[in-house]
Design goal:
By secondary structure, the chain is α/β, with parallel strands linked by helices. Helix 5 runs parallel beside helix 6. It is globular, with a radius of gyration of 22 Å.
Length: about 290
Amino acid sequence: MTVQDWFEKRKEAQIQRRALEARVEIEANPDLWTKCVHCNAQLLKKDIEDNYMVCPVCDYHFRVNARKRIEQLFDEGSFEEMFDNIKPTDPLDFSDTESYKDRVAKAQEKTGLNDAVVTGIGSIEGHRTAVAVMDFDFMGGSMGSVVGEKVTRIIEKAIELRLPVIAVTSSGGARMQESALSLMQMAKTSCACARLDEAGLLYINLITDPTFGGVTASFGTLGDIIIAEQGARVGFAGRRVIEQTIRQKLPADFQTAEYLMKYGQVDVVSARKDLRNVLSNILSMHETREEVCQ
């Protein structure tokens, strides 16, 4: 055995020992570790949290809930929640494999929210704005009567206070358990967006992964400026449904933020760590324009 072979063998043994030590540590402390769903890297949860819930290895953006999103975007202590007392009912007494009431109760217990959107007013780098932030953890971020009502109310409050509006979307679409009542929220929120436009106020869409269905087809894409988070999947129908309908294979990056940017359907694609600065800059430019107009 040559000296070089000896060093190579020793190096390989060290790598195997470290891998074994890492596995032992992961098995001993499973709550401290998680696996990236994109690159399969074993990561400390704290490392991901410190990196805006983004994988430090492959840059995959993990989904974040509404509270975490507000924490990341807004000035500390500036966010004031509004309309949090509005709760869903079961007007159709709907039941499939489980009653709608039970599904809602489980989602409320899981998320600590009354429904799939958090609305309120806060500041981003000192720029005051109204916001609606959807939470995919609550029944897939589905839009029912409560989501439509809260989004409409926060837009009306913004018109009253002359504030810009940011809608942060993450949704699978309309909530089937409310049937036509859910679909009516598309028209309701779209009309609210039209009134905001007539009032001459800025409306920003921040599209996050995933945003589909009735939310995409209504208030989710009606903004003056549409920002998509890096890697977000956006569309109306899902990829599989489209492929089965047109009987063609779609591009690998179809319905991603980058694909939509390429074809002019969004204005900005931003990494999560840059979103706060992007929004602050847009709000700042808007405030400057308002001052000039006055």
